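Ligand: calcium ion. Inputs:
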Amino acid sequence: MSDISRLSRRRFLITTGLTAATSVALKGCLGNPPTATVDSGATGSAASPVTSPAASPVTAADAPEITTIKLGYIPIVESAPLIIAKEKGFFDKYGMTGVELSKQANWASARDNVTIGSAGGGIDGGQWQMPMPHLISEGVITNGEKIPMYVLAQLVTQGNGIAIAGIHNGKGLGLDISGAADYIKNFQSTQGRKFKAAHTFPHVNQDFWIRYWFAAGGVNPDTDIDLLAVPPAETVQGMRNGTMDAFSTGDPWPYRIVADEIGFMATLTHEVWPFHPEEYLAIRADWVDANPKATKALLKAVMEAQQWADDPANRAELVQLVSGRNYFNIPANILTPPYAGQYAMGDGKSAFNEFNAGPLYWKDPRGNVSYPYKSHDLWFLTESLRWKFPLGGMKDFTVIQQVIDKVNREDLWREAAKEAGFSDIPADTSRGVETFFDGTKFDPQNPQAYLDGLKIKRA
Ligand code: CA
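Predicted complex:
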């Protein structure tokens, strides 16, 4: 364990009040536990695990204008807070008794469904990669049709990684690939085709993570390799039969790829950018504007679900709920290790055995996970400028900031958290300077300096 992750873990344990007793409970629930939960520096805290309001908090004054909404989700760990809010009764608790969760076939379907809205048979909002809400609001990925959306909460941090096909065992493909850059770049001359990598949707998270990782190691993802959007099942089949080399993906795929001996994990996104922003809850602006109390009721329910989900004692039940046939429809044992932060990496790399390396929903060592920092919206849009991705009218930082101020409704998150009596409300809309594994820093006060300092970017 690195010093920073050791420190992070200790702070996490202190802030969540995870005691030796709960470590034992975790061991009982999840089988082989993270050895790091036995952390002698963390057992003296008396902090309460989560902040939970009293039951039946809905008064006549904050009764929701509407009790129904249709929210889309993708069956990956990012959507767990929505499923938990539904299954554990948190939506009901806050008066949203008619929330319908609608499984989306893929990200393009989610986009198309939010464009038509629930009135047209689609969805009102749900789970999104970034910066999809901004791109949909500006009509960039909706054929020019602008559907204003609001980002309301972050659903999760981490839980993603970069998998490599087994044919590349022993070639030095880890977190830092600078030693393997020539092997990747020369693939065409030695193998007759370029090194081929996949993500699931262009110009959003998984595309950014693998681009960042390649470029930090000296490989230009635009020119040195082929990088394209491919459905997960097809990517995995390609990794099996030797026609696909890398996959930027989320749980449960990293565990499956190693367990099924399809390949190995080069790195977890937890290593590339510890506690990075991942996926978000965003809803159509027309729905939120018409139903502000219902929006806050939804937010309170999701926040309480996130607090519940981060209690290690609840993770075994979480796995049972999300893995069920009506949600992820996968064997629970495939999700149990990632939810304990246990990642076999393969290719001779040390396994992770650290709760904080896996998905976190409410709190991490940097602070609140659920709160939607505007500085993170800015990083996603800055990275879009780096790779010259289509941004419509968002051509410079002035316009980008205007769009962020319109789309990001951290003010509603704050109101909801205060009304519900939750603590851990961030003081600022910026999380401050972000540091990546290669030492690169992103200062939200000066995104241009970050862009200027990057060696590999699209001309
Ligand atoms: Ca993801």
